């Protein structure tokens, strides 16, 4: 099919034609109301059969349609119809009812335009095809004797008989072109008249930003919690396998650490996934903090065979809950990176000075680079995101043969 044929008879053109027919159907009650209003003033009993009076009734009914479009459901219903039938991007249309005066005015203009063009195309769709078919099949009857069949005598001319089928086909093409043009016009004006206002766009942008913030937060929680647990469990199981015959006591300690790590991680995973389930309340597992689980985090890391020294120069119980929680995740990620990529021993220092919490994690540089996992490498960026949200600072890099992670968090964050 050529481009012009698709534009006239393609799937999109047909759906827009249906949309116009729906507009014509919606216009019928208003045309009837206009006829009722017009009848007494004209004193004519043929208001329903006279084309000029029907057109006048149509003109009277459209302003009434504009008034009724002020009902709240009009804009969402029209937006849904445009989205389904006109091929307009859903993000370019408003979803809720019109609230401001400008939104109501645009909705009224759209409803009037839809019903006006729909009424015209619907009337043409009823009248033109039958007339066009009559013109296309007329020549055989004219050749058989049009006058005897009651046809006009002018049809006896041979050139008239030859041109009537052409005129019929031209009328059908004109109808299709008119419907396609009106449908394209409605599709073009829909975002302007039914589109969201600046306030709606701002609210949608804020909602998207909030949704992205929640998703990023959940992604960080899953990465830090599950990533640390899997790394620790892998090393614990590996160390237990190597020492199974020579150090049963260490093996029992490693297996207990694996059990504890997986149990805690399942609880944290349930808490995170509970946020994702529509209608579900968040899981009951509390978010880990320095005050609640720093000792357990160090113990589970050591159970993997990693030598970890820790110096805590401040009481974790005095830290603000948000700082304590984010600091726990930062220490956890630092230990995870050391487990996966670095040598030992690992040194952890936590202290406070000048209204800031200082976290330092150091370990020797690895003699050989660890293989990079597909999709990995988000740990430091996750730490940077956490620190930025709290208004702190973070630095990670090699210094004097050591890999050092240093984070400063303001203690004024609640």
TrEMBL record:
The chain crosses the membrane at residues 20-41, 53-71, 109-138, 158-187. Its EC number is 2.7.13.3. Pfam families: HisKA_3. The lineage of its organism: Bacteria, Bacillati, Actinomycetota, Actinomycetes, Kitasatosporales. Residues 215-279 form the Signal transduction histidine kinase subgroup 3 dimerisation and phosphoacceptor domain. GO terms for cellular component: membrane. Keywords: ATP-binding, Kinase, Membrane, Nucleotide-binding, Phosphoprotein, Transferase, Transmembrane, Transmembrane helix, Two-component regulatory system. This is histidine kinase. It is an enzyme of class 2 (transferase). One of its GO terms (molecular function) is protein dimerization activity. The keyword Aminoacyl-tRNA synthetase does not apply. It catalyses: ATP + protein L-histidine = ADP + protein N-phospho-L-histidine. The keyword Secreted does not apply. InterPro entries: HATPase_C_sf, Sensor_HK_TwoCompSys, Sig_transdc_His_kin_sub3_dim/P.
């Amino acid at each position: 099919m050529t481009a012009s044929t698709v534009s006239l008879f393609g799937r999109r053109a047909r759906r827009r034609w249906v949309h116009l027919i729906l507009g014509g159907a919606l216009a019928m009650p208003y045309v009837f109301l206009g006829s009722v209003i017009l009848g007494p003033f004209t004193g004519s009993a043929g208001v329903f059969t006279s084309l000029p009076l029907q057109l006048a009734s149509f003109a009277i009914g459209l302003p009434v349609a504009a008034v009724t479009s002020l009902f709240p459901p009009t804009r969402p219903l029209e937006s849904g119809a445009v989205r389904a039938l006109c091929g307009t991007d859903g993000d370019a249309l408003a979803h809720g009812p019109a609230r401001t005066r400008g939104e109501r005015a645009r909705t009224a203009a759209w409803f009037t335009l839809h019903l006006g063009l729909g009424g015209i195309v619907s009337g043409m769709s009823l009248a033109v095809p039958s007339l066009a078919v009559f013109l296309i099949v007329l020549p055989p009857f004219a050749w058989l004797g049009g006058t005897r069949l009651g046809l006009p005598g002018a049809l006896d001319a041979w050139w008239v008989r030859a041109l009537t089928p052409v005129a019929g086909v031209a009328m059908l093409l004109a109808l299709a072109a008119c419907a396609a043009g009106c449908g394209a016009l409605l599709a073009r004006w829909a975002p302007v008249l039914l589109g969201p206002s600046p306030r709606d766009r701002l609210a949608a942008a804020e909602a998207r930003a909030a949704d992205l913030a929640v998703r990023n937060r959940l992604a960080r929680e899953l990465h830090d919690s599950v990533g640390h647990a899997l790394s620790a469990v892998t090393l614990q199981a590996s160390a237990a396998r190597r020492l199974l015959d020579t150090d049963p006591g260490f093996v029992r300690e490693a297996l207990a650490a694996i059990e504890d790590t997986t149990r805690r991680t399942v609880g944290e995973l349930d808490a995170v996934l509970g946020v994702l389930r529509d209608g579900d309340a968040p899981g009951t597992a509390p978010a880990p903090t320095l005050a609640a689980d720093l000792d357990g985090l160090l113990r589970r890391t050591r159970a993997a065979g990693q030598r970890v020294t820790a110096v805590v120069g401040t009481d974790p119980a005095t830290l603000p809950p948000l700082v304590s929680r984010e600091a726990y995740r930062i220490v956890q990620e630092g230990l995870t990176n050391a487990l996966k990529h670095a040598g030992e021993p690992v040194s952890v220092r936590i202290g406070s000075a000048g209204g800031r919490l200082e976290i330092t994690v150091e370990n020797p540089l690895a003699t050989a680079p660890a293989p990079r996992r597909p999709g990995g490498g988000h740990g430091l960026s996750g730490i940077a995101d956490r620190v930025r949200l709290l208004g702190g600072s973070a630095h990670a890099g090699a210094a004097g043969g050591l890999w050092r992670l240093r984070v400063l968090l303001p203690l004024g964050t609640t």
